[in-house]
Amino acid sequence: MRTDIASKKPIWITLAIALVFHTLLLSIQTSRRFDTSILRSWLIDSQGPLEKIVDVGIEGIENIWNGYIGLIHVRRDNQILLSENDRLRIELERREEEGLELARLRQLLDLQASGMGKTVMARIIGKDPSTSSQTLTIDKGSHRGIQRDSTVITRDGVVGRVIFVGKLFSVVQLIVDSQSAVGFVVKSSRRLGILKGNGSSELEMEYIDDDNDIKQGDELITSGQDQIYPKGLSLGVVISVKPGSGSFKAVRIRPSVNFSHLEEVLCMTEHVSEVPVGAAP
Amino acid sequence: MTDRISAFRSLAKIAISLVAAVVIQGILAYRLRVFAFVDLPLILTIYYGFTLGRPVASVVIGTTIGLMQDSLSGVPLGTNGFVKTLLGYLAATAGSKFDVDLLVTRTIAIFLFTLGNGALVSILGLMTGAAPNTNLGSSVWTWLLSGTFNALLGLLMFGYHDRVKHAVS
Fold it and tell me: pTM for the whole thing?
């Protein structure tokens, strides 16, 4: 028993000393008799550098994690985002396309409703694969009332005429085709003439003699004398007048219609001799 | 000579672990919110109390780590020192009376020591006027949460200790 007490003494003494030390420490801080800031600052300063080292270490690990290990999935995420971006871009383009198409169709509908006889809206589904002629294929044929020589127009002006009619499809000869000829009248001077295609994107006038007062900027419309195109449809604008062979002038005309941007057209299924003023493109 | 070297090594290990526990606790509590509920110095005090089998050493460890913890916190110096000293002694005593190798004993012990730690620190805070607005009732939930986290972390530490012990033996 004595031995037990003797062996337990150090722990009781140590515990007592430690608890008294802490109690005194607390007491002097509470009563503010002594300034313990020196002890506290010494303890902080002794641990501060270690804290700094550990903090820097953790920050380094964080940087490595964020800069390298955390980027493991970035490549995969990037690919997913890229494909998502592509999908959205295609979707956006499709929507924009639909918007433009809607605007075009609306314009054609306006034209259709403007009192120029029966018309059929058609979509261009093909272009002449050869370079010898300038023709287009449209997705409407005889079943929709399209006939040979039906005039094909857009809001901008004359596109051409139907030269072959199938049951479901038709072929349109553009006015710029080298086989095409359209009777015209100069809007301002009312002079008549014939416009011919030359296979390029422009038109030419035939037999314009030197004393003809046609000039650059003159607007040309269909004359209706060719018995194909109704009178009053826009054909184009004179872009140059130069001396030609013999006593004739070489006159170049830019068509009203931009043939490279055609997508939908209007086919006139009922022949009218003249398009009413205001309805004509 | 070999014994002295061995003793010095053990002492160095303990000293490093104490400093590391306080420093890591301070940094992790700042960086990770969940670490505010963990008390690494307390876990270490209990750990050494259970495993060293030397009450005097446990009291010294409790005193040292408590003071270090106080110096980096806003409480008066001695608050955690007093509590950790007492808990270090109690852990060493419990280690000699109970089978602390059992998982259940360890879990319950760490949980209860955490509750005791929270209660004593709060009471001392009230007594010294350092934390006059402490509501012991609402603090209980914090202690319970802290007890759970400490028990989980403590079990990991003890698990590591057991593996090292087995590897050496």
Answer: 0.51
So what's the ipTM on this one?
Answer: 0.83
* Interface touch A19/B85, C-beta < 8 Å: yes
Among B31, B60, B71, pick the best mutation site for testing chain A contact (most A Cβ within 10 A). B71
pLDDT in tens, chain B (169 residues): 677 788 788 888 888 888 888 878 877 776 777 777 888 999 999 999 988 888 899 999 999 999 888 877 767 888 899 999 999 999 999 888 888 888 888 899 999 999 999 999 888 888 887 666 667 777 888 889 999 999 999 888 888 877 776 676 5
A230 Cβ contact partners less than 8 Å away, ≥ 6 residues apart: A116, A151, A222, A224, A268, A271, A272, A273, A274, A275
Question: Considering CB atoms only, which of A10, A26, A40 is closest to B79?
Answer: A26
Distances in Å between the Cα of A127 and the Cα atoms of A131, A168, A174, A263 are 10, 16, 11, 11
Distance of residue A95 Cα from the nearest chain B Cα, in angstroms: 47
Using CA atoms, how far residue A265 sits from A149, A196, A258, B53, B87, in Å, is 15, 21, 12, 99, 94
Sole residue written with tokens 């700094």:
A52
d(CA A214, CA A246) in angstroms, rounded, equals: 17
